[in-house]
Give the backbone structure.
Amino acid sequence: MTSSRPEATRRHWRETLDRYRRDFERPASDKYWSDSLDTASRDELTAIQNAKLAALTPFLYENSDFYRRRFDRLGLAPTDLRTVEDLAKWPVVDKTEMMADALAHPPYGTYTTMSDSVWADRGWMMFSSSGSSGVPRVFRYSHYDRQYWEWANARALYAMNFRRGDTAFIVSGYGPHCFAWGVQQALTHMGVATLPGGGMDGKARANIVLRFRPTALVCTPSYALYLGRTMQELGADPAKTSIKTILVGGEPAMGIRATRERLQELWSARLVEFYGCTEAAPHCGGYSCPASQGADGGVSAHLMDDIQIWETVDAETKAPAGEGEIGLTVCTCLNSESSPQLRFLVGDYTRLDRSPCACGRTHQRALGSFVGRADDLLNLRGIKMYPAQIEEGVRSVPGIGDEYEIVISTTGDGLDVMVLRVEHAEHGSPGSVAERIMAEVRARCEIRADVEVLKPGTLPKTEFKAKRVRDTRKKS
Ligand SMILES: [Zn+2]
């Protein structure tokens, strides 16, 4: 029996994934979910990446019109991209290109390899990019993806020390976003019990922690702060609860020292994080290991080198960044039959490192973890900075409230200025607090910002995802 090229390339792709799948159902040892993959030699990891990449490009060409058009436009054949070294021939795919495709080909776009017949046969769930701006991009996944997704996340969660006997409280709206669902599915696959925390307010959630004593909290960093404060308002101490681990995703936290310390002190718990994106890495890409928080204060996150190819590129030229140099993250996803993107520009600044990790894993690490997407970069009078750098400066001052706001505006004489609005008990005589914040911020991003010290409780409380920046400058 003959089959069409789309079917044949899909079958070959799936056979390749199956060939390199190990320890799918249960962990191989106490230390690693998959000893042989998590501690594989760099040569073996590269060989697996190459084998998967060689099967991926024909599959993409035959099953995604977006990719076929791109190959044809670039004058490349799928066989031109067979190894990790070949990847540089392929310009990175960015979000705007995907959005244009989604607009031109509603409602699903053509950038995925999901078809209506696969969806009818083994469709699992649809997810959507959470981007606050632009056209939402949707991603339909199959049950085949679900299994590979569970496996990938299980490996990461195991590295964070999630084990049977734990109970994880997952605080999420359970909307079409990958993070909470991915953790939910993977913990279920691992046999770790969960408490779904959707559809209730902070007080109800605080009472669940106190009453049912979960050992882990899964939420955004903003929510972990909010829930801890809610608990304090109820007269309880989050540091004395059963929570030992806080797994965060959706916003940077691990890479911002003051935020990391604030969360860990508030809950007297260890912070671990998931890093990824909806487009290329529905399961996590980066994750914390036992050695993620170094004694010297340095932090890192592992990437998953046998199921994704992570690179960094120069922010301006998009040419590959050298090893150890700061660049923007790019991901080729080798672990999906529905959304296996080729060099998708995820766009967080970090530094990749291949030196051995104290935990024994051989997969490369993002040093300093992640502090935000390039899209979020602020530019004030030519000086570029991350909101995370400002957050670090603001939160390093003792007594500062959790909420703060960055307001950028243009003065009457045309000068762009930044005002930081913070909360502190000394709002009546704010001089020294304001000066301290100015100095901390100036030390981190060489910018002069004015500081407005407000009475605690003035700024709106953030629940799930913080909106810190208000930019009222007129765009020319
Ligand atoms: Zn490690």
Remarks:
- The chain has a mean pLDDT of 93.
- Residues 42-63 form the longest helix (22 residues).
- The radius of gyration is 23 Å.
